[in-house]
Specification:
This protein is of the alpha/beta class. It folds into 2 domains: 32 residues; 235 residues, Alpha/Beta hydrolase fold, catalytic domain (Rossmann fold, 3-Layer(aba) Sandwich). Helix content is 33%, strand content 25%. The strands form 2 sheets. The chain has a 10-stranded mixed beta sheet, with helices on both faces. Strands 5-6 form a two-stranded antiparallel sheet. The N terminus is likely disordered.
Length: 280
């Protein structure tokens, strides 16, 4: 009886309106990856790790790679659907990793929900090792452009992008944090291009923390103290802080809170395309 009800529900979902939302529900019910993605698995430090991966068809030349890290309590599939990164970037390999249950002092002290380490050395560097494993396999299997490897993420995923900057600066070309910040445990950075999206009324990652991060990035990157208008996209107003070290900062601000503005991916994609790693 339960199986029959399940099949009827799937039939109804496949024939009713609002196909986009219902297709996402069907994917969840069936355990399928989102359309255009494959599910990959690794064993890292004895733990099963997974990620959703979008590989462009007919790769004839080396292509960029963008790692996309969900926020604490989020998941890879939801980030694929809600961010829409694949709608603005059809050319890159997109990787949406899935976090493990991780304690965080802000929202989850007991570690009941998935997330990422927030400092080098934390959690045995399990997420840094996960990043290394994914990238190593990808380089073996695909034509990866080593000058165009990027990291972006929301909230805890944004913080982890800063961790990656500190830990893997010679690998990354640029990062794109949304609603995140550097933490007090971060201290050793090399210049790297950064685009950072922030809400001025963020109740979780306070704007004052994010503004302090902007100051720290400008100091590391040798950026100008005053920015110039770089773009306006929907609710976002972006300013460019040029760098004497080839590592500009763009801050894209909105009047909201801790959300992920849909326009973020448009600006992040543009910034990444404009900032490959310099030719040595």
């Amino acid at each position: 009886m339960k199986r029959r009800c399940f099949l009827i529900a799937l039939w109804w979902l496949s024939t009713a309106g609002f196909l986009g939302a219902q297709n996402r529900l069907m994917e969840a019910l069936l355990g399928r990856p989102p359309e255009g993605y494959i599910n990959r698995e690794w064993i890292v430090d004895g733990e099963k790790r997974t990620a959703l991966m979008r590989i462009p068809k007919e790769l004839k030349e080396s292509v960029p790679v963008v790692f996309c890290w969900h926020g604490h309590g989020g998941n890879a599939s939801h980030s694929v659907h809600s961010w829409g990164y694949d709608k603005v970037d059809a050319r890159s390999i997109l990787i949406f990793p899935q976090g493990l249950n991780t304690p965080t002092p802000l929202v989850d002290k007991d570690g009941r929900f998935p997330g990422w380490q927030t400092a080098v050395g934390e959690q045995g560097d399990r997420d840094l090792h996960f990043f290394d494993a994914m990238l190593a396999d990808l380089k073996k299997e695909q034509k990866v452009d080593a000058r165009r490897i990027y990291s972006m993420g929301h909230s805890n995923g944004a913080v982890f992008s800063y961790v990656l900057w500190e830990a893997r600066p010679d690998i990354l070309a640029a990062i794109g944090p949304v609603a995140g910040c550097m933490t007090p445990k971060m201290h050793d950075f090399k210049p790297l291009p950064v685009i950072h999206i922030a809400g001025k009324k963020d109740p979780l990652v306070k704007y004052v923390w994010q503004d302090a991060t902007f100051t720290a990035v400008r100091q590391v990157n040798g950026c100008a103290l005053e920015g110039t208008e770089w773009a306006k996209e929907g609710v976002l107003v972006a300013s460019l802080y040029p760098s004497t070290r080839g590592a500009p900062l763009v801050t894209a601000l909105h009047a909201g809170g801790h959300e992920f503005p849909q326009e973020s991916v448009v600006l992040i994609d543009r910034f990444f395309k404009e900032n490959p790693k310099p030719v040595k």
